[in-house]
Structures are given as structure tokens and as C-alpha cells.
Design a protein that fits this description.
The complex is a heterodimer of chains A (about 280) and B (about 325).
Chain A: H1 2-6, H2 8-25, H3 27-30, H4 65-101, H5 103-117, H6 121-132, H7 136-162, H8 166-173, H9 178-186, H10 191-214, H11 226-235, H12 242-269
Helix pairs in contact in A: 2-4, 2-12, 4-5, 4-7, 4-10, 4-12, 5-7, 6-7, 7-10, 8-9, 10-11, 10-12, 11-12
Chain B: H1 2-28, H2 34-39, H3 45-55, H4 61-73, H5 87-122, H6 127-141, H7 144-156, H8 171-181, H9 185-221, H10 224-231, H11 236-273, H12 279-288, H13 292-320, H14 322-325
Helix pairs in contact in B: 1-4, 1-13, 5-6, 5-9, 5-11, 5-13, 6-9, 7-9, 7-11, 8-9, 9-11, 11-12, 11-13, 12-13
Classes of the chains: A mainly alpha (about 280), B mainly alpha (about 325).
Chain lengths: ~280, ~325
């Protein structure tokens, strides 16, 4: 933690993410208006600034944009966290088994990963959700599937290196079961790079979630999501261009937060890669 | 080198089979009966059974797959449920627009990204370095479709030269017409339409290239032979461009190749934003209309292009870096 506080990139990222988490948790208390409240009389109100009633303006239904952006942070962070968590568990599991067992198991698992990588990840996520049907849960599932290979590859390469170490041989000589050696001794040492990839994956997951929602495949109304807000804004791009501006900024700031933290963590754990 | 190419081509075969199985399953395991959806809720059981027989949906799954794969190999992608047109015709019509968009995006990214990276590396530690790298980090964090929306609302709405939607003639076709017939109008129209969509996809890649150019160049600039070159009294720009940049370019070339594939992914959504008549927009429209043959054919074609591009990148990389071949 001390190292994180000393690294400007990681610290900035951590501050942004912590602030966003607080916003998402206390969204009910922070929204200046009811984000679901429809009032046609004030539809397409331009941003009125910090002293106005509608600080960032309203959408086609007269709903307050700031309140909707605040509420939308929940879906973005939730989908990204669950998807990243799932891809982390499955990726680490597949990668470590492939690396530790080697041989046919390794070949089969890694060829499956190659198969997922044979599609542009956004396209595969879109195809999976198109097949399963739109919705938050299916979006989470699709995003996690497309992020598994990156996690599996990193874990596998780490395990391949670590399994030749002396402490592993010592464990084997003591007659420990393979699962114990793998999960209690080897994986503990892979923690840092896995966390770096997971942090970066959070940023990617937020973008993919926004993309799916933008295309109408992610969160469905009445659930508020930044991607969906952008899709609605697109329809009014000539008359109310501000509707597409702010939800997008929210996405950029969130992704930037995770990228900064990921960059910083990588610098801390792998000084050789510093600056890349 | 030949054996490397043959090995890589041989590896493509099981991958392509895997891709085709995955694409087939994605559509066939989806919940809901496409035939019932097509006929509507009022359709009788007999009608549904009849249409299932016509499409072959009543056969066992593996039989359906082999029939579908055989047809695919012959270039028969089936018929669009909604438009009644052969899917292969729709898909092949759209491929050039998508490839052109991806190519121009990469071009923009390289033209802007490499100088920005060099600039940041040369000005290392100064305020300019920080500004360029923060700009690059913001570029990486920006969803390309949002940038597209921004370009539409901030630029296309105000600048008549840059239209909001569509595509009017091919840039490369226009270039050919200019060279053969000395008529630049098609090229100009093509360029006007492609600038904004290509910028919206290219900016994030530009950011990646800039970051990589900077770090790669910094690593090289720390080497002894660079110090020697400086000590010989060579001009600074000669050392940077002739000695350092040449060696720093290899990882950049790799990233450009890998990113070209990623561009295809980014193009899917950007095409929707700019109503660009490419493969991505075809797939997205087909999804909203639940036109499964188009989804299947489009996704399969996109994956085939993606893997082929990656294969070409691998081969060209092996050409410039002999160590890869003997791996």
C-alpha cells in the first residue's frame, strides 16, 4: 500500500476509483433529482451550470442527466467487477492447470483460449449477447468470456516459470498433493501480475459494457447505464449534443482511473516494464 | 521461412474449424425458436414444422453443422431471412468498406502516434512529455464510438466539408481514378466521408502507438552505442532517427499489426455511429432484426479476416525477425 501511495499514477487511479465507488454506493443520496422522474415540460433543458436546477441538463423525457449519470455508475462498476471477477477465477484456473499439468491438458486448454482470441473481443461479446438475449447478466457473462484468455495466458506463463522453482520441488518431495502445491504455493506468487491484468481488464470491461448497452444489448430500461444514455443522446445529436458528452466523460474518467492504477501497479511490481 | 509459413498455415485449419463450430453453436443454442419468431405467434404447429423441415432445423445438430459447413466452403452462406437475398452477396459487398476504414484508421494512428511518441521520448521528463503521455492515456481510455459521437456533434455539424453519415465512393478506388483518369472528385468524396470515422477509431490506437514508441525509444536511447554515436559528434536528429528509431520500430510494427485486427472490432460500433456501410453495421442491423443467417455469415467472415490478418502479421514479423522462425 505504501508503494501505491508513493506512485503518482497508481495514487491518482486509486483516488478516482475510490471516489467513483463512493458515488455508486451512495448514489441514492447524491442524486439531486429522481433519475427516473419523467417531466416532459423540461425535456432537452440545456446544462444550467452549478447554480441551476439541472446542472448537466435533461434528456428527451426531461430526466435529470447528472442524476442519471450518478445512478449509471452502479451498472458500469457492477458489470465490470462481476465480469472481471469471473474472468479472473476462470482464467487463473484454466491458466494454472494448463501450466502445471502441461501436455495434452495444456494443449486443449490453450487451443480453446486461441479460439476465443480468434474473434475481435467486442465482436465475440456482441455475438454471445445476441445469441443469449440482451440484458445485464448476459452482458456480464459475455464480457467475462472474452477476457478469460488474457488472464489464462499470464497465469500459465507465470506457473510455467514457477513450477521449476526449488520450493515447488520441495513440496513435491514432501509428498504434497498437486492441487495444494498449485493453489497454495505457486498461485500465491502469481498474485501481483494477475492483479495488474485484472485492473486493466476492469477498464476494458467498462468500455465493452458501454458498447453493448449503446447497441441495445446490455442493460435494458429502466436500468440506467452510460452506454444506453449515449444511444439515446445519439438520436438527439443535432438538437442536444450535450446528452452524449457527459455520460461519455464519465466512462473516460472511470476507465482512466483503472488504467492509471493498472499502469502504476505494473511499475511497482515489475520495474523492468516501467514507462511502457 | 517456407516451413514456418507452412506450419502457421497448417495451424490455421483446426482454428478455422473451431471458429466455424463456435459460430454455428452460438446461433443454434440461442434460446427461442427462430422459425416461430419469423412466422409470428399465430403460426400453426404445422407451419412451424414445415419451415423447420425446409431450413433443416429438424435434423440432428451435428448433421446440421456438416451441411452448413459444406455450404460455407462452397461460398453459400444461406439466404437472409428478412431480405431474401443471398448472405454471401451482402457480406462480400460490405467487406471492402470495413477493410478500408480499418486501414485508413491504422494509417492515421501511425502518422500521428509515432511522431508523438518520439516527441515525448526526446523531451523526456519535461512538461511536454507529461502532457503527451497524459493525452495518450486519455486516448487509450476513450471508447471509440463516444469519440465518434463527439466528432459528429462538435465537427460534422459545423463543418460542411465533413459529412455526418455514410460513404460516398472508395478512397482507394478514387485514388486509382485520380491516377488513371486525372479525376480527383471520387477520391475527395471518399476522403471527406472517411476522415471522421477513421479518426474516431484511429485515436485510441494512436495513443497506444505513441506510448510504445516512447518507451521503446527510451530503452534504445539508454544503450551504449547511442552514447558512442553522440560521442562521435553526430547531430542529435541523426542519432535519434537513424540509430535509435530504426531499432525501436520492431515492437511498434508488431503492435500496428496486432492493432489492425483490433481495429476491425472497433469498426463494428463506429460503423453504426457513422452509418458506414461495412460488415459491422450489417451484423448489428441483423442482430436487431434477428436475421440469423446474416449474423452467422457476418461473424464468421469477420473472424476469418481477423485470423488471416493476424497470420499475415506473424509471417511478416518472422520475415524481419529471424529469431521467431526458429522458435
Amino acid at each position: 500500500m505504501k508503494k501505491i501511495l508513493k506512485n503518482p499514477s497508481a495514487l491518482t487511479g486509486l483516488i478516482i476509483i475510490s471516489a467513483l465507488l463512493l458515488v455508486a454506493i451512495f448514489a441514492d443520496y447524491l442524486t439531486p433529482h429522481d433519475p427516473y422522474d419523467i417531466d416532459i415540460w423540461v425535456s432537452y433543458t440545456a446544462p444550467e451550470g452549478i447554480k441551476g436546477t439541472y446542472i448537466l441538463g435533461t434528456d428527451d423525457m426531461g430526466r435529470d442527466l447528472l442524476s442519471r449519470i450518478i445512478m449509471g455508475s452502479r451498472v458500469s462498476l457492477l458489470v465490470a467487477s462481476v465480469a472481471t471477477g469471473l474472468s479472473l477465477v476462470l482464467g487463473v484456473l484454466f491458466g494454472s492447470i494448463a501450466g502445471y499439468c502441461g501436455g495434452l491438458v495444456d494443449t486443449v486448454i490453450m487451443r480453446l483460449m486461441d479460439l476465443i482470441l480468434a474473434f475481435p473481443s467486442v465482436l465475440l461479446a456482441i455475438a454471445i449477447v445476441a445469441s443469449l438475449g440482451p440484458g445485464v447478466v448476459n452482458a456480464m457473462f459475455a464480457i467475462s468470456i472474452v477476457r478469460i484468455p488474457a488472464m489464462a495466458r499470464v497465469t500459465r506463463s507465470m506457473v510455467l516459470g514457477l513450477k521449476e522453482e526449488e520450493f515447488v520441488m520441495a513440496g513435491q518431495a514432501l509428498g504434497f498433493r498437486s492441487s495444494r502445491i498449485l493453489f497454495r504455493h505457486i498461485l500465491i506468487n502469481c498474485f501481483a501480475p494477475i492483479m495488474v491484468i485484472a485492473t486493466m481488464n476492469m477498464g476494458t470491461a467498462i468500455v465493452v459494457e458501454a458498447t453493448l448497452s449503446f447497441l441495445g444489448l446490455g442493460a435494458q430500461p429502466p436500468i440506467i447505464s452510460w452506454g444506453r444514455m449515449l444511444a439515446l443522446g445519439r438520436e438527439a445529436i443535432r438538437s442536444a449534443p450535450y446528452i452524449t458528452l457527459y455520460p461519455g466523460l464519465a466512462i473516460v474518467i472511470t476507465v482512466l482511473g483503472f488504467n492509471l492504477l493498472g499502469d502504476g501497479l505494473r511499475d511497482i511490481y515489475d520495474p523492468q516494464l516501467r514507462g511502457r | 521461412m517456407l516451413s514456418y509459413i507452412i506450419r502457421r498455415l497448417a495451424e490455421m485449419v483446426p482454428l478455422l474449424v473451431g471458429i466455424s463450430i463456435l459460430v454455428f453453436l452460438l446461433v443454434h443454442l440461442s434460446p427461442g425458436d427462430p422459425v416461430r419468431m419469423l412466422l409470428g405467434e399465430d403460426a400453426t404447429e404445422e407451419d412451424v414444422a414445415n419451415l423447420n423441415r425446409i431450413y433443416g432445423f429438424d435434423r440432428p445438430l451435428h448433421e446440421q453443422y456438416f451441411r452448413w459447413a459444406k455450404n460455407m466452403l462452397r461460398g453459400d452462406f444461406g439466404t437472409s431471412i428478412r431480405q431474401g437475398v443471398p448472405v454471401s452477396q451482402l457480406v462480400f459487398q460490405r467487406i471492402p468498406a470495413t477493410l478500408e476504414l480499418a486501414f485508413v484508421s491504422v494509417l492515421i494512428a501511425v502518422i500521428l502516434g509515432i511522431p508523438l511518441g518520439i516527441f515525448a521520448a526526446v523531451k523526456r521528463g519535461t512538461i511536454w512529455d507529461y502532457i503527451s503521455m497524459i493525452a495518450a492515456l486519455i486516448g487509450v481510455s476513450m471508447p471509440s464510438f463516444w469519440l465518434g459521437l463527439l466528432l459528429l456533434s462538435r465537427i460534422a455539424l459545423h463543418v460542411d466539408f465533413l459529412p455526418m453519415f455514410g460513404r460516398d465512393g472508395s478512397v482507394f478506388g478514387g485514388l486509382w481514378i485520380l491516377l488513371t483518369k486525372w479525376d480527383g472528385s471520387v477520391l475527395l468524396d471518399g476522403v471527406r466521408h472517411i476522415i471522421l470515422p477513421a479518426l474516431s477509431i484511429g485515436i485510441s490506437m494512436m495513443a497506444i502507438i505513441a506510448r510504445l514508441t516512447r518507451s521503446s525509444l527510451l530503452e534504445i536511447l539508454g544503450n551504449d552505442y547511442i552514447r558512442t554515436a553522440h560521442a562521435k559528434g553526430l547531430a542529435r536528429y541523426v542519432v535519434i532517427f537513424k540509430h535509435a528509431l530504426r531499432n525501436a520500430l520492431l515492437p511498434i510494427i508488431t503492435i500496428v499489426g496486432i492493432q489492425f485486427g483490433a481495429m476491425l472490432g472497433g469498426a463494428i460500433v463506429t460503423e453504426t455511429v457513422f452509418a458506414w456501410p461495412g460488415l459491422g453495421r450489417l451484423i448489428i442491423n441483423a442482430i436487431s432484426q434477428r436475421d440469423f443467417p446474416i449474423i452467422q455469415g457476418g461473424v464468421l467472415m469477420m473472424a476469418v479476416i481477423f485470423t488471416t490478418v493476424n497470420l499475415l502479421v506473424d509471417i511478416s514479423y518472422a520475415l524481419v525477425n529471424p529469431r521467431i522462425r526458429y522458435d
